[in-house]
């Protein structure tokens, strides 16, 4: 992406590159974080929050992208009573042969919780220099980090590590 692109256009490109549809704000955040981590991101800054790596800049940018019509945000009520968003890209499909699109589409295929756990463990290793990121992820997220979900998150992360990217994802 060109360095002169507006931040909201970069946010919209994440949705486009992920296949044109991303279900959930958490999933969007985790795809974006993992793109940053492997050298394919748009320059968003992340910090750790309750749901793992989070970018306030991305959260604001996707709202602006929606206001400009680059993405459509449809809010729905979840079974548990909260609200979630479905982002759809109004741009045409991206080049499916480039590394960014391949990575974003692969990440989008995994569940939001699994991506949250994987991105959290990756963040703990890359930023916090945690020696045992999966163990720490389980401690931080005991209600989500069940044995089955942690296993699925590890498998998802290993699949993403197999992709050709400019900067290898950290070993966790």
General description of the model:
- This protein is an alpha+beta fold.
- It has one domain.
- 49% of the residues lie in helices and 13% in strands.
- The protein contains seven helices and five strands; from the N terminus they run αβαββαββαααα.
- A three-stranded antiparallel beta sheet has the order 1-5-4. Strands 2-3 form a two-stranded antiparallel ribbon.
- A hairpin with a 2-residue loop joins strand 2 and strand 3.
- Helix 5 crosses helix 6 and helix 5 crosses helix 7.
- The longest helix has 15 residues.
- It is globular, with a radius of gyration of 15 Å.
- The two termini are 28 Å apart.
- The mean pLDDT is 93.
Which key features would you list for this structure?
alpha+beta, 3-stranded antiparallel β-sheet, 7 helices, 172 residues, single chain, two-stranded antiparallel sheet
Task: Find the structural class using helix and strand composition.
Answer: alpha+beta
Tally of separate helices: 7
Sequence of secondary-structure elements = HEHEEHEEHHHH
Q: Fraction of residues in helices?
A: 40-55%
Low-confidence stretches: none
What's the number of structural domains?
A: 1
Quick one: overall form? globular
Overall pLDDT = 93
Q: Distance N terminus to C terminus?
A: 28 Å
Strand order of the biggest β-sheet: 1-5-4
């Amino acid at each position: 992406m060109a360095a002169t692109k507006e931040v909201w256009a970069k946010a919209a490109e994440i949705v486009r590159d992920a296949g044109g549809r991303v279900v959930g704000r958490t999933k969007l955040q985790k795809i974006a974080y993992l793109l940053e981590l492997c050298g394919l991101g748009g320059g968003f800054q992340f910090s750790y929050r309750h749901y793992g790596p989070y970018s306030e800049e991305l959260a604001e940018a996707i709202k602006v992208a929606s206001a400009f019509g680059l993405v459509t945000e449809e809010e729905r009520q979840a079974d548990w009573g909260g609200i979630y968003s479905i982002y759809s890209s109004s741009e045409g499909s991206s080049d499916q042969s480039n590394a960014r699109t391949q990575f974003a589409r692969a990440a989008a295929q995994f569940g939001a919780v699994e991506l949250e756990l994987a991105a959290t463990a990756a963040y703990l290793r890359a930023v916090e220099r945690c020696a045992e990121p999966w163990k720490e992820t389980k401690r931080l997220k005991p209600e989500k980090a069940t044995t089955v979900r942690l296993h699925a998150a590890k498998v998802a992360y290993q699949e993403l590590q197999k992709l050709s990217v400019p900067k290898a994802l950290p070993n966790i």
